[in-house]
C-alpha cells in the first residue's frame, strides 16, 4: 500500500511518532474513548511494517476489543497489509472478565503484561499496545502508572483533543524514558454512542459463541482462580441445614475454610445470622448469591494459567459438583482452571447483568 493510497487522514504533527515506529520499540497508546487510538495503532503498525519491522499489536481495550472478544486483552502479529485492527485474528487472549477496567485494575494490568510477553515471544521488535479510554480520575492514574511500570515502554503516544491526558503524562516530564509524543486527534474520528458501543460488544460476543457447545465438567478439575468457591473443604449436609436455620434461606453449597465458612445461597441471607455463623466457625462467613453465577462469563485456563478461551456458566449442579458451560473451545476437557468474570451474558451476546466487584470472591 503506497503512502499516497493510505485510507487515513494523518495530521502532519504525527510525523515524529511515525518515524519512531519505523525505528521500532514498544509504544503504549493513551487517549479517551473515541479518540482514534485503534486507528493510530493501525497507522503505527503500517509504518513499522513498511520499514521492515516485525510488528505485534496488543489490544488492551477490553470494552471495545478489536483483537479477540470483549473482556479480554488480545495479541497478534501483523504479517501483511493492514487497514484496521478489526481485520486481525487474535493469536492469544487473556481474560480480564469485564468490559470496564474499573474494579478490575490489577487484572487489566496483569493481562496486558501477559500479552506483551506473548508478543515478544513471537520475535516482534515493534510492539504497539492499545488501551482503554479510561483517562479520568484516580483509577485511570493507577492503571496507567501500573502499565508503564510493568511494560517499561520506549514510547507513550497520547492522542488528545485538548489537554485531557496531561495528568497521566505528568510523571514522565523529567524522565529520559519513556519518550512522550503528544498527538492531536485526527479530524476523521467519529464518536460512537454508548448504545453503539454496547451493540458492538454484543455482535462480537455473539460471533464468538456462535459455534459454542455445551459441556459438563467436574469442578474439582477446574478450580476457580479468583473466588473462594472450590478452595475449601465441602461441608456435610447437617452443617448446611444448620446454616439454613441461621440464615433463613436455602444453602446450596457450603465449604469450610481456614478463615471460616463459605456458603452459596438462594435468597437473601440474614446478616446477623451470617455474622453469628462465621463466629461459630472461628472466623467469618461469606455468602455468594447463586444468581450471580447464572450465565456468568468465564475464562477457561490451561495448565500454565493461559486463557484457552471463554465460556458461559449456564448451570451448576451443587449436589454432583459439576458445571455446565457453553464454550467454543475445542477441547474444554483440557481446561485446568476457571477465572470468573463480572459480566453475565447469553449466547447471543446479550448482556444480562453485571456483578459488583467482590460478588463472587
Walk me through what this model shows.
- It is built from 8 helices and 17 strands.
- The chain is elongated and about 75 Å long.
- It has 361 residues and is an alpha/beta fold.
- Strand 14 and strand 15 form a beta hairpin.
- It has 3 domains: 3-196, Rossmann fold (3-Layer(aba) Sandwich); 213-226 and 292-354, Elongation Factor Tu (Ef-tu), domain 3 (Beta Barrel), CATH 2.40.30.330; 233-290, GMP Synthetase, Chain A, domain 3 (2-Layer Sandwich).
- Helices cover 26% and strands 29% of the residues.
- It has a 7-stranded mixed sheet, with helices on both faces.
- The model has no long low-confidence stretch (mean pLDDT 94).
Nutshell version of this structure?
With 361 residues, this protein is α/β, with parallel strands linked by helices. The chain has helices at 15-23, 37-50, 105-121, 137-151, 166-169, 194-208, 237-247, 271-280; strands at 25-30, 55-59, 72-78, 92-95, 126-130, 155-160, 179-184, 213-218, 233-234, 250-257, 260-266, 284-289, 296-301, 307-317, 322-327, 337-345, 351-354. The longest helix has 17 residues, at 105-121.
Amino acid at each position: 500500500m503506497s503512502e499516497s493510497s493510505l485510507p487515513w487522514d494523518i495530521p502532519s504533527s504525527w510525523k515524529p511518532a511515525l518515524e519512531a515506529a519505523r525505528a521500532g520499540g514498544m509504544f503504549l497508546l493513551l487517549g479517551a474513548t473515541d479518540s482514534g487510538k485503534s486507528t493510530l495503532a493501525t497507522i503505527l503498525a503500517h509504518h513499522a511494517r513498511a520499514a521492515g519491522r516485525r510488528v505485534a499489536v496488543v489490544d488492551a481495550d477490553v470494552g471495545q476489543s478489536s483483537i479477540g472478544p470483549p473482556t479480554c486483552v488480545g495479541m497478534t502479529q501483523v504479517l501483511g497489509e493492514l487497514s484496521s485492527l478489526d481485520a486481525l485474528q487474535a493469536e492469544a487472549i487473556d481474560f480480564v472478565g469485564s468490559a470496564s477496567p474499573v474494579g478490575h485494575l490489577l487484572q487489566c494490568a496483569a493481562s496486558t503484561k501477559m500479552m506483551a510477553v506473548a508478543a515478544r515471544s513471537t520475535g516482534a521488535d515493534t510492539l504497539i499496545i492499545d488501551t482503554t479510554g479510561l483517562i479520568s480520575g484516580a483509577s485511570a492514574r493507577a492503571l496507567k502508572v501500573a502499565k508503564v511500570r510493568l511494560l517499561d515502554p520506549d514510547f507513550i503516544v497520547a492522542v488528545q483533543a485538548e489537554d485531557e491526558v496531561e495528568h497521566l503524562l505528568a510523571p514522565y516530564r523529567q524522565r529520559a524514558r519513556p519518550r512522550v509524543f503528544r498527538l492531536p486527534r485526527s479530524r476523521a474520528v467519529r464518536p460512537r454512542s454508548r448504545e453503539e458501543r454496547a451493540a458492538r460488544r454484543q455482535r462480537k460476543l455473539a460471533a464468538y459463541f456462535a459455534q459454542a457447545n455445551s459441556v459438563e465438567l467436574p469442578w474439582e478439575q477446574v478450580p476457580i482462580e479468583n473466588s473462594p468457591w472450590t478452595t475449601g473443604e465441602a461441608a456435610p449436609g447437617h452443617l448446611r441445614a444448620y446454616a439454613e436455620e441461621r440464615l433463613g434461606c436455602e444453602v446450596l453449597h457450603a465449604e469450610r475454610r481456614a478463615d471460616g465458612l463459605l456458603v452459596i445461597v438462594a435468597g437473601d441471607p440474614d446478616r446477623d445470622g451470617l455474622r453469628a455463623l462465621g463466629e461459630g466457625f472461628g472466623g467469618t462467613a461469606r455468602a455468594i448469591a447463586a444468581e450471580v453465577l447464572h450465565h456468568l462469563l468465564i475464562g477457561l485456563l490451561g495448565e500454565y494459567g493461559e486463557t484457552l478461551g471463554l465460556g458461559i456458566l449456564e448451570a451448576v449442579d451443587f449436589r454432583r459438583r459439576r458445571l455446565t458451560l457453553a464454550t467454543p473451545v475445542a477441547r474444554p476437557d483440557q481446561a485446568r482452571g476457571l477465572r470468573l468474570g463480572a459480566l453475565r451474558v447469553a449466547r447471543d451476546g446479550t448482556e444480562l447483568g453485571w456483578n459488583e466487584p467482590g460478588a463472587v470472591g
